[in-house]
Design brief:
Layout (H helix, E strand, L loop, with lengths): L16 H8 L3 H10 L17
Length: 54
């Protein structure tokens, strides 16, 4: 990952991908979050789901 002062990384730990995609994104909290932060996005954010491998 390159460092770019105009890019931000938001790291959220979910118990499952479903918790993010179904539970959170379908909630009033997601709508409110997008309402608050949406004006600061230059474009639709890229979302990646990753798994820690130890």
């Amino acid at each position: 990952m390159s460092l770019n002062p105009s890019h931000y990384l938001l790291l959220v730990l979910w118990d499952s991908v479903e918790d993010h995609i179904v539970t959170f994104r379908g909630s009033p909290g997601f709508a409110r979050w997008r309402e608050l932060v949406g004006p600061y996005f230059a474009a639709t954010p890229d979302v990646e789901h990753v798994r820690a491998v130890i």
